[in-house]
Amino acid sequence: MDTSIIAYGSLLNPSEQAKRYFRNAIPVKVCGYRRIFNQEPSWRKNQGKEIAVLNIEISTHDWFNAIVLPQIPRFHLNSLKTRERGYHLISVPSSSIQAYTKPLINHWKYSTFIGKAEKLNSHLDPNLEYLEVCLKGAWLWGRVFFEDFLSTTYLGNGSLIKDNVKYEGIFRNIAQMDIPDHLPLASLWINDK
Description:
Elements: E1 3-7, E2 26-39, E3 50-72, H1 74-83, E4 87-91, E5 97-99, E6 109-115, E7 125-126, H2 128-139, H3 143-151, E8 153-155, H4 168-175, H5 184-189
Parallel strand pairs: 1-6, 2-8, 3-7
Antiparallel strand pairs: 1-3, 2-3, 2-5, 4-6
Helix pairs in contact: 2-4
């Protein structure tokens, strides 16, 4: 059975590896987890403390937004697993997933990536290039999705990323971008323009 992947970080951005699945992607909210910058990278390189990439952790009172990349064939899933080698692939029950507008298919198998214990480090700051890739990806799904991303993304110290003045310039620059014509699907989900 093919797996539908819940993408919550750099895979929100079509410039990353999963481009071919964006045509049918579904913006969603995933309950019972928190998105947090507390993961050491496996292949993205930077120096110092600014190396963290996104991860999720179980948190009954939290949620995060993401996109579902539907029905990834096993061959491509194996490629994603190699790319995401610092993570475990876990199943997510469809009851934890709420689409922004388009209904989900309940009989699909939903999975996402969660960080391996040996890669967790809450004392790191986000890799700025990676953060920008994630933010641009979130912006492509519209202003509401982008704002939800900012409101549900935490730093390793437990504070919301949107509350950290260090990143305000990046947020502002992204929010001034136009939504490109080459990703027409994003316009289907924008109900605030």
